[in-house]
What we know:
The protein is mainly alpha-helical. It is built from 22 helices and 6 strands. The strands form 3 sheets. A two-stranded antiparallel ribbon has the order 1-2. Strands 3-4 form a two-stranded parallel ribbon. The longest helix has 38 residues, at 134-171.
Amino acid sequence: xxxxxxxxxxxxxxxxxxxxxxxxxxxxxxxxxxxxxxxxxxxxxxxxxxxxxxxxxxxxxxxxxxxxxxxxxxxxxxxxxxxxxxxxxxxxxxxxxxxxxxxxxxxxxxxxxxxxxxxxxxxxxxxxxxxxxxxxxxxxxxxxxxxxxxxxxxxxxxxxxxxxxxxxxxxxxxxxxxxxxxxxxxxxxxxxxxxxxxxxxxxxxxxxxxxxxxxxxxxxxxxxxxxxxxxxxxxxxxxxxxxxxxxxxxxxxxxxxxxxxxxxxxxxxxxxxxxxxxxxxxxxxxxxxxxxxxxxxxxxxxxxxxxxxxxxxxxxxxxxxxxxxxxxxxxxxxxxxxxxxxxxxxxxxxxxxxxxxxxxxxxxxxxxxxxxxxxxxxxxxxxxxxxxxxxxxxxxxxxxxxxxxxxxxxxxxxxxxxxxxxxxxxxxxxxxxxxxxxxxxxxxxxxxxxxxxxxxxxxxxxxxxxxxxxx
Length: 471
């Protein structure tokens, strides 16, 4: 299938205006990449792929005597049905489903219909969907789409954001900045170090997202190979199933009810939700730093910030990202809570929920793009940051009282609190006069007098420049 075939399926402008979901409406161009993995079309194609590969695999098992090994030409024909799967093919399956009222059975009938003109395949057509329950096909189809979407779309976007932040961490590693714990002036940091913290958090979540094993099963209606064993008692069906699932590039799930328990999907959702939460935290901080004028935003010709106030350049990208991350987390948390729970051996509560995986992921992908767009507009306002530092000499109280502790001065914290807390203004002269009166060694006084709010950053610059990647 070519990339163009799904582009043709994307909503036109009129359709976008009528869409219920903004992902298929306002934002449809920004999440087009996900259609290849989470659309109804993508699910039908993946189901067809599993049916085809199961038929080919069975034909290669010598113990399945009634199904001869398919010729290379027949295997190529079957796989081309998947590779060239079109909107017309998907439409035909939906037409069949209108009669069967069963979506997986419709794929089976479509495949039988497609091979009817080839003698060997037609003769073997009753081995299509052999010993399978619909969930055997469904769980593998979803797993293939999830794994591919993660590798080809989701993880690369997450990693791109991490790398962008790492670049900013290095670029601004030495730029001092007033920290604001509890919103109040606090011991200074550097701009780069704060970017590095975010990059490390997001990378950890990326690693957990990538590490989650995508799993699959193909063991029949109750997970016991009942039909398989009854038809071919001598075959080691668990070994066959494990090998088949591994050939699809998935991790085999050996013990299930009728459904694969979806625990791996919960793990993926939790990891992505942790990524989202860390990014929400960053978006809010970025918003705040823009409000403080620590960063300015590049203007875009023709773009309007406020319909009433011409001067405004609003931080809309960070706000848009925050909103979409919240939507994503709400859905991801629901998926993680609901999908691993099934009454007895099977209920269908997971079916409609699984169809929304792309929605939860789509809001996260949209948010990442918005944050990247916002970051690309930022310009550091070093002059404002430096002015802010110079207004807050009281942040050196921590340094002074810690040195006083070293040399045994009594009640150092209390003395600095009396000097600085609630004071209208503490400046260089006020602080130096206090230092000069201390009973501490002269070299300690010299070090303290040499400090400024801009130089009191500890190892922040080294931490930013020498960022340790998650293992």
